[in-house]
């Protein structure tokens, strides 16, 4: 009985993680500039990977593979956001401006 619950929960987490990875991949293709693409990839990597690895940990049970998957998960949760930040910061320092859309130029002084 308990194995069946873990199997269903594992399958649900794997499907949810796959869905987030798929949606994030579409987001990376559809986003207009580098910064929004970095954001889509970072969220996909963090949330999708977390769900998939958690599903795999539930599926494997209490074995050595579970602890290896946990180590991979912790490593990815620390390195994913840091690498996205480094990529975005390097692009900004390199002179790539974000696309902010149509905006009015700032006004000098007050209007009466």
Number of domains: 1
Q: Calculate the terminal CA-CA distance, rounded to whole Å.
A: 75 Å
The largest sheet, given as strand count, sense and whether it forms a barrel, is: none
Shape: elongated
Number of helices: 3
| Element-level helix/strand string | HHH
- Helix % is over 70%
What oligomeric state do the depicted chains represent?
A: single chain
Q: What Rg do the Cα atoms give? A: 20 Å
Number of strands: 0
The residue ranges in which pLDDT falls below 50 over 5 or more consecutive positions are none
Q: Into which percentage range does the β-strand content fall? A: under 5%
Structural class: mainly alpha
Q: Give the mean pLDDT.
A: 89
Describe this structure in words.
It is elongated and about 70 Å long. The protein has 3 helices and no strands. With 112 residues, the chain is mainly alpha-helical. The model has no long low-confidence stretch (mean pLDDT 89).
Fold blueprint:
Elements: H1 2-30, H2 34-60, H3 64-93
Helix pairs in contact: 1-2, 2-3
